[in-house]
Amino acid sequence: MMQAAVQIFAEKGYQAATVRDIVDEAAVSVGTFYFYFPDKETLFIHLYEETAEFLLQTLQQAMNSRVSFPQQVKAVLQSYVSIAVFEPAAVQLMLVAGVGAVPALDDKRNAFRKSLVGMWERSLRGALDKNMLAPQNESLTAMALAGAVDAAILSLLTRADRAEEASTFTRELNRFVLRASAYLGDDG
After folding, report:
1. Residues in contact with 141: Cβ distance below 8 Å, sequence separation at least 6, in sequence order
2. For the residues 75-100, what does the mean pLDDT come to?
3. What pLDDT does residue 75 have?
4. Per-residue confidence (pLDDT) for residue 188, from 0 to 100
5. Could you name the CATH architecture of 39-180?
6. Among candidate residues 156, 186, 177, the one with its CA nearest the CA of residue 87
7. Where are the alpha helices (DSSP H) in 65-183?
8. What does the pLDDT read at residue 60?
9. Which pLDDT value is given to residue 103?
10. 183 has which bridge partners?
11. Which long-range contacts (CB under 8 A, 24 or more apart) does 128-134 make?
């Protein structure tokens, strides 16, 4: 039922999705839905929390698995693009579905954004400490990178051939992030 709900929310958006749509997609009864969740909003919030945690853990793990800034950027982008290619509904749920429609999610969205920006900021700070980047406001750069990468990932979701384009897309996005962060080495 959870995977079906992610699909429905991603396809229709929070407002247009109905409990009936979800149970039909999941091939379960309405009673089964209400046994687990009191309403659509509770389910959506649960899915958002689970997806946010998964995405943040995956990206943080990718970043932590590398030492140098360019390697960290590459690992994070490869992970994010892979999730977008293989779990596009989950990424759609995180970045688009329900934006502004579920006021109870505002604090959770802000916390997710803050964590994502914090991940970039820590990496930028480490690279600045090693003189790998031109001097800058790493907080502002981190906010800009998080937003730009999300926008690029959203554009990838609209492509029918995203799996075939993933490698080129990742390479170009990697170059962009290194240039945008004022990386002083070769941007490959």
Report:
1. 120, 121, 124, 180, 181, 182
2. 90
3. 98
4. 56
5. Orthogonal Bundle (1.10)
6. 156
7. 69-86, 88-95, 106-129, 138-157, 162-180
8. 97
9. 85
10. 133
11. 130/69, 131/184, 132/68, 132/69, 132/183, 132/184, 132/185, 133/69, 133/181, 133/182, 133/183, 133/184, 134/182, 134/184
Cβ atoms of residues 109 and 93 within 8 Å = no
Domain chopping of the chain, boundaries:
39-180
Task: Kindly state the average pLDDT of the residues 151-177.
Answer: 96
**110: three-class secondary structure by DSSP:** helix
Q: What distance lies between CA 37 and its chain's CA centroid?
A: 25
Name residue, tokens 């897309």.
Answer: 169
Confidence category of residue 99, pLDDT binned at 50, 70, 90: confident
Listing DSSP states for 115-138 in one string gives HHHHHHHHHHHHHHHTT-B-S--H
Residue type, 10: A
For residue 36, what are the contacts with CB-CB under 8 A and spacing of at least 6?
Answer: 1, 43
Is the pTM above the cut of 0.70? yes
Q: How far apart are CA 153 and CA 146, in angstroms?
A: 11
